[in-house]
Amino acid sequence: MSNAKAKKLMLGDHAVAQGAYEAGVKVAAAYPGTPSTEITEFIANFKEVNAEWAVNEKTSMEVGIGAAMVGRRALVSMKHVGLNVAADPLFTFAYTGVNAGLVVAVADDPGMHSSQNEQDSRYYALSAHVPMLEPADSQEAKDYTMLAYELSEKYDTPVLVRLTMRIAHGRSFVEIGERKEVELPYKPDISKYVMVPANARRRHPVVEEREKKLVNDINGDAFDGLNTVEFGSNKTGIVCSGMVYQYVKEALPDFSIFKLGMVYPIAVEKIREFAGKCEKLIVIEELEPFIENTLKANGIQCSGKNLTGLQGELSTEKIRDIILGQKAAQVSAENIPMRPPVMCAGCTHRGVFYIIHKLKLNVVGDIGCYSLGCSPPLSAMHSLICMGASISNAHGTYLAKGKEFSRGSVAVIGDSTFIHSGITSLIDAVYNKSSITVIIMDNRTTGMTGHQNHPGTGKTITNEQTHQLDLEAICKACGVKNLAVIDPYDLAEIENTIKGYLGADGVSVIIAKRPCILLDKSLWTGAVSISDCKKCGLCLKIGCPALSKCKDNSVEVDAALCTGCMVCAQTCKTGCIKK
Question: Contact, 240 vs 283, CB < 8 A?
Fold first, then answer.
């Protein structure tokens, strides 16, 4: 019989989950965020793992910490901006140590495919003094995750595993193994886990000593195979990690390569030895000069960001151009249609933004599908900072400009985002006697990341029934007196309600409540038809992808896309649009 292990073609995200499962993880917690969402979705399929969608990344980190403290391995996953939210507990848990292993999978987004910035999470490893591994394919994503649990328990520290978009959502073959159950004894230890200042002062030197040991070990033989050296016929040495390694291997097959598997702490002495065998050294890395600056600070001459720049993704073609001067053939864009992101046909957000645009309101926005309200023809969002910022930002504008400005302004936030970090902002606005209008776009799901459940849906990550959070009751408990629930398909109701609340004393909340049209096809009521079109173009102002202009300026309906929401019919003044 063959002893060969089964192999599966897996996303990098799925491979992280597979590695965590095989490592004996008992608890997995996350808040959805591209490109990390699929990690928790996948691990939730294993009955041995207690997986959950937490209300935000800070909460998920604290759930993982609780599990690790009492002796069960835990996985916490998030995208790079989510690590900002989770940083508070992470930094302190770096002081306490873990008991059972805690691994934090963080997915960065070079090129900002689905993010508001290009934050480099490697600096969190440096700042928190915790090790970070970075896989270069799906097999390494699994292997490094399993190794991370061993390192976490050996060095008594949380461990970060860094992915980037191309690793998280790229596929390669992964060997599938058996699960190993791990449960460590729990013994209460006040001096270790209670981080009052006196105990924290005693734990800080422990962190420094742990990091020194890691540095010694990574430059010795303790991590053989994690960092690898490949000498080629070209004596120029390349230092790289993660997805960039794949680009380098393809673009520069004859170059010598030092591939980092552990990106913090960096094996400086090993790289020094490698550099001594090369004629020159180039660091190729996406985003910040993290590796390059470390090498230069340790007296190792190299170049890097002067060649590759600080922004965006790298690629095989870019590296060939940068290092070899070989420009890739240019593809003509003349006949390639533009496909900007757009709200779906029948989206429950469209009517609200149409009215907001009609009323010429200033819109303080938030993170979610409704972020697309900034795009033409709606153009009804004027700021977007981070999860949950809309209400706080709107309160800030009220404090700065007064009630007259707020009379022409609204804050827009989604249901999942409101639960994530909008509730505290609402409490703050009410407590500090703000007079702002807040619209909660309640489509009963976490839409932008793929329709995950949240406390407002009444279902867990595995679709089990649970307590359904009542957003109206939450708003009332926060002290909101002006509260309305409206149908986002009813344009007249939307307009009248917004007009009625603008400029009212105190905080006003309007909940636009209707399930996302993609959740259930039974919500589709049949396509509309247009007869005897008057060519006024008013219906096109809602920006629905099911409507398009013909050569003669009339409007036609794509019946395959139309869901029958009838929002367009409400904009038509001549009654041309009917079921």
Answer: yes
From the CA atom positions of the chain, what is the Rg in Å?
27
Tokens 């870019």 belong to which residue? 318
Report pLDDT for 1.
45
What's the token pair of residue 186?
């729990």
How does pLDDT run across 517-576, given as a tens digit for each residue? Answer: 999 888 899 999 999 999 999 999 999 999 999 999 999 999 999 999 999 999 999 999
* pLDDT tens digits, one per residue of 210-243: 999 999 999 998 888 899 999 999 999 999 999 9
b (16+ CB within 10 A) / e for 478-489: bebebbbebebb
Could you tell me if residue 157 is left (phi over 0), alpha (psi between -120 and 50 degrees) or otherwise beta? beta
Q: What is the dihedral of CA 57, 60, 61, 66, to 10 degrees?
A: 160
Going by DSSP bridges, is the β-strand pair 74-79/27-30 parallel, antiparallel, or unpaired?
Answer: parallel
Q: pTM of the predicted model, to two decimals?
A: 0.93
β-strand partners of 508: 437, 482
Give the count of beta carbons closer than 10 Å to the beta carbon of residue 291. Answer: 24
| Beta bridge partner(s), residue 281 | 237
Q: Are 43 and 20 in contact (CB under 8 A)?
A: yes
- Say what the pLDDT of residue 305 is: 95
> How is residue 116 annotated by DSSP?
S
> For the residues of 278-339, what is the DSSP string, one character each?
SSEEEE--SSS-HHHHHHHHTT---B-HHHH-SSS---HHHHIIIII--PPPPPP-TTPPP-
